[in-house]
Amino acid sequence: MEPATEDDGGFMGVHVGENMAPALVSVHPKGAHIVVSIGAGLRIFDFLKNTPVAVEDNTTPGKHGEAIRAVAFNEEGTLFASAGDDKLVKLWITETWSCVKTTRLPKKVTSVAFSKDSKWVLFADKFGAVHCLPTEVKDGKDEPFQLLAHCCSIITDLEVTSDGKYIVTSDRDFKIRVSTIMGDISRLDVDCALGSTFQLFELILCVVAFTEHERLDQVSVFPRDPLKGAPEIWKYCLGHSSFVTCTAFVGKRSSGQQFLVSGSGDSTVRLWDYYNGKMLDVFYTGEVEELRNGKVEDDSSRAVSGLSVSPDGSVVAVLIERFSGVLLLHYDDATKKLTHLESIFLSEQVSPTSLAFDVDSRLWLVAGAAESIELGDQLVTPEDAAAAEARAQMVARTAVAHVRLIRKHTSDLGGEDNARETLAAYKLCEEDSMPGGESLRLALQGSRADAGEVAVAAEAAEQAMRKLMSKRQYTIEQRENRKRFRNDKKLENKEG
Amino acid sequence: MADCEDGGFKGKRRSEQQTLAQGGNQKGLPRKRFYRARAHSNPLSDSYFPVPNNPSDCDWKEHFPAFFKDNASEVESGKPANDEAKSEVRSSESGAVVPSFPAEKSVPKVRFADIGCGFGGLLVKLSVLYPDKLMVGMELRDKVSEYVKERILALRLKYSGQYENISCLRTNAMKYLPNYFEKGQLEKMFFLFPDPHFKEKNHRRRIISQALLAEYAYIMAIGGIIYTITDVEELGEWMKSNLDAHPLFEPLSEAELAKDPVVDLLTSATEEGQKVARNSGETYRAIYRRIASAV
Fold first, then answer.
1. Least confident range of B200-204, B209-213, B237-241
2. What value does the mean pLDDT of chain B take?
3. Which residue, of A467, A481, B60, B186, is most buried by count of CB atoms within 10 Å of its CB?
4. Is A253 contained in some domain?
């Protein structure tokens, strides 16, 4: 089944189709692994053994059939989730990198997060719903149930607050929503002494206990009534004037005081007190000197396409459309303001597609994209599905990515000048001196590492994102055409 | 559309078209036949109308000019006597069973919202029943919301001092309610004869669903009431079961329903309701109160 791609041999051999999915990077919270997902494939590198890791997957379907759009580690790093356009969520145990669970969902997944106690994996889909799946492996199929939904809007990011009490979701309709995860132990007549920290999903009548009492695990059954979810919206953080692309928490986790930063198509990064729904600061990326000196011909505002916060919560790294580098912002906890720290340029003209800080405050950047082949609504025979999966895997294997590292360089100041080290300079790491060295580069970047190819692919991915997030503009003629060929019948062939 | 000798008729604004048709007399109320629209409108399509970024950006002064004059006492005073008034003016406190909400002290805020207000029948009736409460109707269809705006303007002109507390917004209530209203702002929400979306694959577009109830619960004050009515039995059951399933709403008792003056308006006030009554159809009501969360 040959999908219709714009195949004139591609540009420099890269197949740039309609739908290019960006490469994503994710680092193990304790620094053990780094994962780059590109297309339908996962590339994993183990830092401790300094070797690439092959995954083991005995579930069905055994591989992702379309591009992976969301990846996440749980807080301890014991679990990993991958999900995407093939509507599958795969749950992996990171010790052995074997897939323990694969679940099919009704819609494409855009974002994934684990609950604080790692008992649940939450995922958001393209239609605005957030679903929940237990991470425990049981015999028989578990069905995900819906927690909450933004009405008919693509959810772009999903985060769980560090105290485990709220889910923060951002969407295409400029909104950030904070929803309460409900819990009330008094509802249960379970006779046991509980530790002081636990969270429950009360309204789904399901106990998720975060406690040392093992027997409570038996109470973590599937909800009796899947209609219930996280029905209480705590606050909205409204203020962005365009689609919100990503959110992240700043501030020290230990201090409990966490604030939220969000990036958007309006090219701002905003700081929020999410508990009160108040906007604390706005940072206009368009006003940064280095960005203004960029290409003159595109006047349109450049969207913020990615955010990552350093482990100490004080540095926010920002990726911007068509910017071949990363912007670093300083978050000041005392004044609750965001200020420009540094702009770091990559040596080649490639805009990174994803970024992640690791536990040692090193910032990993990856640039690349692979085509995501849409199977569409047509009925697909198992042979077709297998063929599509194989093709997707091949595309993933041959796709190239660039991996770069940015490290903090503490200047060699002695004695009294130590105070200056707090705002240490970040510098791009030389390719040869990246941890993992040649091994890592081979494993994560793919066989060829041509800057031109990567740039083309990354740009296509950015355009795909923009197209997805913006309201579609149709001419009158196009609108009439669409009305005429509207498909109201689900499984029959389309005409024309 | 009535045709005229004037070839440029179609290009003119609806109010002007009407004036031309009526022979130059614009004092009268707008005529529905100039604002005909299909009953159905797709809430999933992205239409082009301005939406405020957040509730504090929303300019209510434009909608309720009389309430935003300098003297705040304007809000508390009773309505000036007007022998053309059709219904008796009742204060909002009488007959209400829910904890009475205090009269506006500072900046007046919208308290009632009619979602899918159609041609505005309910708003017009509620306006005289609760003269101190600001209320808006929200309507997705362009022509229909324009009709309601013209109707309100004409009523304000005709009955001086009255109908200053109602207005109409053209917007998609499924997506943008939190942009207009703060948390806990509304005291009443109305869903009269909503689109049933019969096909199962369209059920997700229904205006009452678990996900949307979370949004309505957010913008409603605790103790606020949500009124729904329909003549489609299946939809009535759907709305009732969704409200039952949602932990932040509880049904009103029969006694409370009997005491609430608004309940009868659900069937009698709107064009849709009157049509159902004419055809001796059955109606199915689900009226619930927003309660505090159990946590």
1. B200-204
2. 80
3. B186
4. no
Which helix (DSSP H) or strand (DSSP E) does residue A354 occupy? strand A354-357
Calpha distance A140→A170 (Å, rounded):
33
What is d(CA A45, CA A436) in angstroms, rounded to the nearest whole number? 8
- By Cβ distance, the residue of A146, A231, A241 closest to B248 is A231
- Residue A81 makes CB contacts below 8 A (sequence gap 6+) with A70, A71, A72, A89, A90, A91, A92, A112, A114, A121, A123
Residue tagged active-site, from B3, B46, B83, B195? B195
The pLDDT of residue A186: 22
Write out the residue range of the structural domain in which residue A439 sits.
24-186+223-248+348-370+424-470
B256 C-beta neighbours (distance < 10 Å), count: 16
pLDDT of A224: 28
A173 part of a folded domain: yes
Tell whether B139 is in a known binding site.
yes
Question: What pTM was estimated for this model as a whole?
Answer: 0.78
- Which of B174, B218, B245 is opposite residue A233, by nearest beta carbon? B218
Task: Please answer whether residues B31 and B163 qualify as being in contact, where contact means their C-beta atoms are separated by less than 8 angstroms.
Answer: no
Q: What is the CATH number of the domain that holds A100?
A: 2.130.10.10
Q: Give the rounded percent of residues in chain B with a pLDDT score beyond 90.
A: 45
- A93 found inside a domain: yes
Residue among A65, A62, A41, A55 nearest A446 (CA): A41
Distance CA A98, CA A25 (A): 19
Question: Which amino acid makes up residue B174?
Answer: M
Residue A185's pLDDT is 23
pLDDT at B78 over 70: no
Is the CB of A183 less than 8 angstroms away from the CB of B295?
Answer: yes
Q: Is B42 annotated as a binding residue?
A: no
Residues of B in contact with A175 (CB under 8 A): 178
Assess if residue A210 is contained within a domain: no
Domain count, chain A: 1
Does the annotation place B82 within a ligand binding site? no
Contact B215 A233 (CB under 8 A): yes
Kindly determine whether residue B245 and residue A228, on different chains, have CB atoms separated by under 8 Å: yes
Query: b vs e for B122-147, b when ≥16 Cβ sit within 10 Å of the residue's Cβ?
Result: bbbbbbbbbbbbbbbbbbbbeebbbb
Question: Nearest chain A Cα to B181, which residue?
Answer: A236
- Contact status of A240 with chain B (Cβ, < 8 Å): yes
Determine contact: B215 vs chain A, CB below 8 A.
yes
Measured between beta carbons, which residues in chain A are less than 8 angstroms from residue B55?
A: 238
pLDDT band at B81 (very low <50, low <70, confident <90, very high): very low
Question: Any known ligand binding at B116?
Answer: yes
**What pLDDT was estimated at residue B4?**
42
Among the partner residues A174, A232, A490, nearest to B248 by beta-carbon distance: A232
Q: pLDDT: is B47 or B269 the higher one?
A: B269
Cis previous bond, B65, omega within 30: no
Inter-chain CB proximity B175 and A173 less than 8 Å: yes
pLDDT averaged over consecutive 10-residue blocks of chain A (496 residues)? Answer: 38 59 90 88 87 84 86 92 91 91 90 88 90 81 80 88 87 90 39 31 34 32 39 90 92 76 93 92 86 57 90 90 90 89 86 90 88 66 77 80 81 46 69 79 74 82 84 78 71 41
Active site residue B57: no
**Is B47 in CB contact (< 8 Å) with chain A?**
no
- Own/partner pairs, B19-23, CB within 8 angstroms, 24+ separation: none
Locate the chain B residue with the closest alpha carbon to A127.
Answer: B204
Q: What is the ipTM of this complex?
A: 0.77
- Do residue B210 and residue A146 have CB atoms under 8 angstroms apart? yes
The CB-side HSE value for A107 (13 A sphere, CA atoms) comes to 19
* Domains and their CATH numbers in chain B: 14-20+54-290 (3.40.50.150)
pLDDT at A491: 44
The verdict on whether residue B266 carries a ligand-binding annotation is: no
By Cβ distance, the residue of B55, B210, B293 closest to A182 is B293
Q: For chain B, say whether A334 makes contact (Cβ under 8 Å).
A: no
